[in-house]
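note to self: the first set is below, dont mix up w the second
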Amino acid sequence: MGSSFIAEHGLWTAEQQEAAQQLGARVREMNLRQIRISWGDQHGILRGKTLEVDHFLTALENGKDFQTATLIFDTTNNPAIPPFEAHGFGDPRLTGLPDGVLVPDPTTFHELPWAERTGWVLSDLYYRNGDRVPFDTRGVLQHQLAALAADGYTFTTGVELEFYITRMVDPKLGFADSGYPPAPPVVTALSHGYQYLTENRGDEADAILSVLRDHLVALGMPLATIEDEWGPGQVELSFDPLPGIQSADNVLLIRSAIKQLCRRHGYHATFMSRPAFDHVVSSGWHLHQSLGVAGQSNVFPGKDGALLSDTAMNYMGGLLANARASSLLTTPTVNGYKRYIANSFAPDRIAWSEENRGAMVRVSGARGDATTHLENRIGEPAANPYLYLASQLISGRDGLARKLDPGPPVDEAYNADAPLVPASLQEALGYFQGSELMRRELGDPFVDYLTALKKMEVSRFNAAVTDWEQREYFEVY
């Protein structure tokens, strides 16, 4: 590849160019021995390469070669199409799965406090001709943020992320346990649970929670709270709001950091929404969001006694009107749909409320409160953060453009006369694939691409014989 690939194709902003110049000297001063160049794949899972420092400095000019074959994998690396018959999903540049180029974003650099003398930087995926790979989900969100900016708005999001920590008993590392997918580890509960927000339960988990807290703070994550949730070993972390793409970038690193740190200390963390254990409560990802304009960071609070502004109401109208079409982006796994159970603090229908944690969209704040904003409770913690946030912008911008009315709030979220959320990933696929809005905003190639990946996942699930089927039919028939 020719020299100065990044400069030749003008891939960095002025801010990134300045950050790269400073980073080159910084990695020497820090005496780092290696840098992980990471990329968030279509599932929101980090992939990448580890580079020696000299090689990383070269990558700051030329990027780093990377296999586009990773784009055709489902969640456990099953190819959705035969690898050597790849047709490009409507993008001929991907035909044959050529090498791509990971271009580091120097503004995302961190030193990893748990890995000796190791740096980390997030990257974007390009073709070798300098074109952005359209299936790079970070690029999808960046495109939506640019469209929002053209409409005159800024976007701010805050994250509440739930997950489970378990104690590792057997990591199941035998060769017989490998495969597509490998055998899950054998674990036991971290604590008994069901003493919601109690200090004693939280203290039982303090040994690992303190490790997570210290390392996330050392990474510069805007950690606000660590909370003992309902289930045995279930934890919720909340983070302060951030502008633009920052919350999405952070979630990628936060989830990976938690899993790595837990594994290093003899635990296993999972962001699977509903693990197959007795007495679990499903985990969710609540996304707080608001829009701003020049000179005003939040335009969602209402005036003259109104709870919400017209902008907020129209934006929320878009979230509700497009909730089914965007469900594949907020809840992308088969397992995530098992969370939508009535009276479970997870929504089962598409409605909003002033103050009701059973509603899909909850207004967080009160009349006259300058921080009033919307909390969407629909997402699962395994969601790709770029696609989750992009789904909100696609839906909300549609609501603004069409001045959609979200209707009146509901008082009883689980008894409301409102449409149900999709009951399965297969149902969500139909709404997503047939959505004119999603095709207009994401493009036919991306919609067809993501649909193909998720259809593969659904077909594998449908082909598996479950424990329920074995109990239900094996003896009686």
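second set (the one i keep forgetting abt)
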Amino acid sequence: MTNDPTPAVDRPEPPFAADEAVMLTAWLEFHRATLARKCEGLTADQLRLRSVPPSSLSLLGLVRHLAEVERYWFRTVLLGEDTGPEGLYWTARHPDGDFDLLDTADAEADFATWQAQITAARAACEGLPLDTVGKRPREGREVTLRWILVHLIEEYARHNGHADLLRERVDGVTGE
């Protein structure tokens, strides 16, 4: 556990002027790194600490959820990969398993899975124009890479707000 105000996680600052693809990618990287910062220095038990009942929200749950999100949007929707009928952490029996099934979760393995999904997402996007249409429609509609990037920025930004509150609950640390 650390209360050091200088985070160790490198968080790239998005440019003030750049083309659309660079800007969207930079903001997504910024938000990915923000979540990593919110989690750094905590023990597995601290990462599993829930917000307030009845919510099952925790920092580790957010990491697991965002691994699922990265996998779904980039690998399943954009690339059209068959990633199977269930998720990394959820099943038909436990649709919120990414948040709910944490009591014996391996935090180190879950962080590695999240990073692996981020790496796969980066590879999926490499060299593709923003107008690239995903190979698997969502709710019967085509989805472009541009939409996916904007959605992921929104998803991370929303959950980083949750992460701010969760981290403050764990050890009082606040910040960007």
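remember for set 2: Confidence is low (pLDDT under 50) at residues 1-6.
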